[in-house]
Amino acid sequence: xxxxxxxxxxxxxxxxxxxxxxxxxxxxxxxxxxxxxxxxxxxxxxxxxxxxxxxxxxxxxxxxxxxxxxxxxxxxxxx
Length: 79
Hints:
By secondary structure, the protein is α+β, with helices and mostly antiparallel strands.
C-alpha cells in the first residue's frame, strides 16, 4: 500500500469514528503518518478534556484505523 492509499484508508477510518466523537462535542484530525506504521492524530473539542480520551483512542480510534490499515502499529494523540 503506497502513502496515498494509506492516508486515504486512515481518513476513511477517521470518517467512520467521527460521528461518535461529534455526538459528544469532539472531533479528530490526522496529523502525520510516520514510517508507514505510526499514526499521529489530534483529538479536538470536548475530546481534549475528556477523562476517557485514552480509552477512546485505543478502543475506538486505533481499532478502527487498524481495520482499514492493518500495518499500523501505533496511534497516538498529539496536543
